[in-house]
Amino acid sequence: MKTISSTLSAAAFMLLPLLNTGSNSALAKFESSFFTNDxxxxxxxxxxxxxxxxxxxxxxxxxxxxxxxxxxxxxKKLEEEGRLNKEGLITICDLSQxxxxxxxYLIDLNECKLVLNTYVAHGKNSGGEYARKFSNRPESLQSSxxxxxxxxxxWGVHGLAxxxxxxxxxxxxxxxxxxxxxxxxxxxxxxxxxxxxxxxxSFGCPAVPMKQSKTLINTIKDGSCLFIYHPSKxxxxxxxxxxx
Length: 244
Fold this sequence. Notes:
The protein is α+β, with helices and mostly antiparallel strands. 27% of the residues lie in helices and 20% in strands. The protein has an eight-stranded mixed sheet with strand order 3-2-1-8-4-5-6-7. Strand 4 (146-156) and strand 5 form a beta hairpin. It is globular and about 40 Å long.
């Protein structure tokens, strides 16, 4: 990976979105049980990771430093283990953000470049505006967290689609069986954001705006890293890629 020259700047961590219902005590109990603010190496972030994060001004685009740190940590592990055929690219879907926000980030780590920042859908049974629940179970219609390796493309009902291989047993390793793919859709994008109560949802696939799908898919296909993030304790504590 190329060395990047930049001045490190302080980044303020963004708070998780609050639940719409329930008392403050109930909210605190819920978040304590299922979400965590703990981050791998929070007190000693990798300097190279921080340089990239600050240089690309990812905080201003809504991507939390914790999320990027997890993504970078997992990417480096997969790279070192030789599990990626297309190195230098990482796609991050930050499902802790509102679906009304552009929460997919395609980053070229070698060039220190934000290639694309756009919308991405979560599964219809994962939640409304915010994703709250996740599953690896077939027919759950929920998103699955964790790291994926992109595979080949095909033409389906949504046009060009990209198959994904889930790399995390118990969290997303049934992705191919569930037919979880990255595809374009008309139910997500600026027009839907303007008129819909919240962004359209999928059957569990990370669907993106149709106008950007072909370029995104052709850029990341054939062995790059894709990471679907949410600060839920079961995943962050149980991921072998992050904790192995």
